[in-house]
Design brief:
Elements lengths: L3 H38 L10 E10 L4 E10 L4 H17 L14 E8 L2 H8 L31 E7 L1 H6 L4 H18 L3 E8 L17 E2 L12
Parallel strand pairs: 4-5
Antiparallel strand pairs: 1-2, 3-4, 5-6
Helix pairs in contact: 2-5
């Protein structure tokens, strides 16, 4: 005969097994219902992307130290700062291509942000009075001296200062040399002005900080006059 205490223990174990089985079945049903509900609530169409528009790029060419205009169709967002970043991303993608006429590693991800800020009236007047001398080699460099970190971007209707924040890896891998660095900086400035004419000045940051030069030569402590960076077609800047 089976002792009474063993019968009692067997009954408890059997009851516990039944309770666990019911609980697991209920959990399985709930998980199945959540899965079905998630599938039903999933979007039925792809997220919308920005419409494609024509963008003007000033593309540098190392063979004759020139910049040439190229028109590309790009998806451009409505926000001006995001549009500027998208256009510069395409420009740097061209430079990172294997057959680039101005090879620079990094590509579009090298542009972290582009901030658009109002140009102070006094600075705009001072910049307008500065004219580069004909044949002066300084025309390949920044013009008006301004300093200070970029504040928060604001809506504006007048002239704009574009603050281009590049990655440290882009600066570290950029070919060193006054001509190569100047072509990169001027093509960025000219491309910004060609697509958003209200951008009249351009400054540069690297990883959010002021940097003395791009790769040892091109001065990044000054402010470019963007209009001066737009040369005639196929001519040297």
């Amino acid at each position: 005969m089976i002792p009474r205490h063993q019968k009692l223990l067997f009954g408890i174990l059997l009851l516990a097994s039944l309770v666990m089985g019911v609980t697991l079945w209920q959990l399985r049903e709930r998980a199945h219902k959540r899965l079905i509900a998630g599938q039903d609530s999933a979007p039925t169409r792809a997220p919308e992307v920005a419409p494609a528009e024509q963008a003007t790029l000033l593309v540098a060419n190392d063979s004759d130290s020139s910049m040439r205009t190229q028109i590309h169709s790009l998806p451009l967002p409505a926000d001006p700062g995001s549009r500027a970043r998208a256009v510069l991303g395409k420009l740097l993608d061209l430079y990172a291509a294997p057959d680039a006429a101005h090879p620079v590693p990094g590509g579009g991800s090298s542009v972290l942000q582009v901030f658009l800020l109002p140009v102070p009236e006094s600075a705009a007047s001072a910049a307008a009075s500065v004219k580069p001398k004909s044949g002066d080699s300084s025309s390949a460099e920044f013009r008006a001296n301004t300093t200070g970190a970029a504040p928060r971007e604001q809506p504006q209707t007048g002239p704009q200062l574009a603050v281009v924040n590049l990655t440290g890896s882009f600066a570290a891998s950029h070919p060193s040399g006054i001509e190569a660095e100047t072509l990169t900086v001027l093509s960025i400035c000219g491309t910004l002005h060609a697509n958003q004419p209200r951008i009249t000045q351009v400054r540069f940051l690297v990883d959010g900080q002021t940097r003395a030069t791009l790769a040892g030569h091109a001065d990044l402590t000054r402010t470019y006059l963007a209009g001066d960076a737009v040369p005639a077609e196929g001519t040297q800047p």
